């Protein structure tokens, strides 16, 4: 082969490689919505011990709960099935960034999170509460537990921790990887109290009535709870989820999913303190 033929061969090979790369790029999903529709799978983060959001049956390893019902409804509208990845409140943001999941539930839209992920419209508005250990005086205000001698247990990276550090900066804050560990710290007396979203606190005390008491300190603190997604230029997925969230919240369907999940731990709407929103 002479030099001219060799150059022609190289040029043809390069053109073929470029064409192949272009074809691959054309068939690769360009957004989360495209990927979900193409694969038929909606990947979500699930978190153990977080009734009524998530519940794991240890005998079957099957997941249930309000967020599972929501995920199945979303997936059905996209012609997909739900696939779960076990995570934590803090880690699910990292899972989104690493493209391990397509959707994170019950994410509070903080400014810091908005720098790295995106959000749908709120699915709920939640109140923050305090679970106190037995014998510890129920706080009427956040100022009553904002003291160095008060030990507050929270799960690291959660909005529970954000609230604790914002409203109780003088307290001794104990961070744990998972919320279950923070609750255990209260039950064993290692911590005086735990800060949690109201829906989680109510369910926790229903399952563990000897744990302590529920307090709703003033001022009443509420934050929207949204769906978390990856930040991307294509807005179709975000717009779809926002429309889904607005529609189901307005119809009361989201509340019904929560009440259904509450029933699994023996709770009804009457068991929810009137000042708690959800």
Automatic annotation (TrEMBL):
The keyword Signal applies. InterPro entries: Solute-binding_3/MltF_N, TAT_signal. It holds the Pfam family SBP_bac_3. Keywords: Signal. Residues 41-261 form the Solute-binding protein family 3/N-terminal domain. Transmembrane segments: none annotated. Residues 1-25 form the signal peptide. It comes from the Bacteria. This is ABC transporter substrate-binding protein. It comes from Bradyrhizobium iriomotense.
């Amino acid at each position: 082969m002479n030099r001219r033929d060799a150059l022609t061969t190289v040029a043809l090979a390069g053109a073929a490689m470029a064409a192949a790369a272009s074809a691959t790029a054309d068939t690769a999903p360009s957004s989360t919505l495209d990927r979900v529709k193409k694969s038929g799978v909606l990947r979500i983060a699930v978190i153990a011990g977080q009734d009524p959001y998530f519940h794991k049956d240890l005998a079957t390893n099957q997941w249930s709960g309000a967020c599972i019902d929501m995920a199945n409804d979303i997936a059905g509208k996209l012609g997909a099935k739900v696939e779960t990845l076990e995570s934590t409140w803090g880690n699910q943001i990292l899972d989104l960034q690493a493209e391990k999941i397509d959707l994170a539930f019950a994410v509070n839209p903080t400014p810091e999170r908005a720098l790295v992920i995106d959000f749908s419209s709120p699915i709920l508005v939640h109140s923050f509460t305090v679970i106190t250990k037995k014998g510890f005086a129920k706080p009427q205000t956040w100022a009553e537990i904002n003291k160095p001698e008060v030990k507050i247990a929270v799960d690291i990276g959660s909005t529970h921790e954000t609230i604790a550090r914002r409203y109780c900066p003088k307290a001794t804050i104990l961070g744990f990887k998972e919320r279950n560990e923070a609750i255990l710290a209260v039950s064993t007396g290692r911590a005086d109290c735990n800060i949690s979203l109201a829906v989680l606190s109510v369910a926790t005390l229903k399952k563990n009535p000897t744990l302590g008491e529920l307090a709703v300190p003033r001022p009443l603190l509420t934050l929207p709870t949204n769906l978390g997604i990856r930040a991307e230029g294509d807005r179709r997925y975000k717009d779809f989820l926002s429309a889904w969230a607005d529609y189901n919240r307005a119809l009361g369907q989201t509340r019904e999913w929560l009440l259904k999940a509450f029933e699994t731990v023996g709770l009804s709407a009457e068991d929810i303190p009137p000042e708690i929103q959800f």
